[in-house]
């Protein structure tokens, strides 16, 4: 089988010839050039599977080559080589997305083996993307899209609790998809044929919320011109979502507790209770345990609602789901046109913090779909907040010892610290280090970490 094409950029003619001969001998098609300018020109003309570049060169440096490659194709493997081996350049290269670095002199097998690992990992990553696309429906829970460990854990637990009639409390930041999860619980339960009724407790005026929840009799107050069923009655035989339940007044909390215990409601102005058969699901972005301690939320209602608690993770804690979600929204807002996201735009989308979570991502993709000039969403179509540069390596590494230090030991320590910080979870540690999980596993094997 023909091996892929490799672009080699190095201004050292003798080393360039040695590397070219070594890789060609092992079946690679190598295009070797002496400058970054020539390398970038070839990148625009020919397809390459990987780039090997020196860092320090006249004109366009290896770091600039790396940045240009990442902009063209964030998935392309880039290996940097240098005779200077400084902590700043090597760490910066890794932060900017290089697969690995090698310090001159290195033996002929070291570069070849590093290249083979890089190509193998990139091939596996592409295969995983196709596999995830093929099984995405298996991990969709009534519109919740994701394949990360965090979201799959939530969906698995939600699927198990759906079969019961237990009350469920869904917590999480605004925009994480709490209502979608509640719908998933309902439509995967024995009540799926019954109604799903949602009420936003924070959006209803205080003087109307009791009537909205429990209903009223005609003439019970000014404006009550007819009998009205409340949300509990409308949800009879199905499920009722009490969204933003943490915003309810204390007196209404007592009435909801009674409705849950007695399975009936008292309409405003009514003479007798109305029986209801409702499964209650509550959702909030507030810390209800803290609210209980502060006296803002009834302890007995809290325990009644939180028979099972599900926490929707924020989008920043499941970054590997962002490409799937972005692709879903692109298809949603561009149904009449095949549209894609440019690699550099997707990289910016993945790197952003998403304080507004999935809802904010949906809004950004909708905006970009409106502003795009062709069939591709580019970096220029994204809001400025997504394209601003973050902190650099110099903001993190503040004090370098005069006697020098081992770059490999520093990298090993960073990996250990990241794994400790995330309790051994490789996916979260990789996200924290801004590398892919396969790359993290490769480096763990490199340093003998288990």
Describe the model.
The protein is of the alpha/beta class. The protein has four domains: 5-132, Rossmann fold, CATH 3.40.50.2300; 149-312, P-loop containing nucleotide triphosphate hydrolases (Rossmann fold); 316-387, Helicase, Ruva Protein, domain 3 (Orthogonal Bundle); 399-446, Arc Repressor Mutant, subunit A (Orthogonal Bundle). The chain is built from 20 helices and 14 strands. It has helices spanning 13-25, 36-45, 62-72, 87-95, 108-134, 149-162, 178-187, 206-214, 231-234, 250-262, 288-293, 299-305, 322-333, 343-351, 357-371, 384-387, 393-396, 407-421, 426-433, 437-446, and strands spanning 5-9, 29-33, 50-54, 77-82, 100-103, 168-171, 196-200, 239-243, 264-265, 274-275, 279-284, 308-311, 340-341, 376-377. It has a five-stranded parallel β-sheet, sandwiched between helices. The chain has a five-stranded parallel β-sheet with strand order 7-8-11-6-12. The radius of gyration is 28 Å and the shape is elongated. It starts with a strand and ends with a helix. The relative contact order is 0.09. Mean pLDDT is 85; it is low at 132-140 and 390-398.
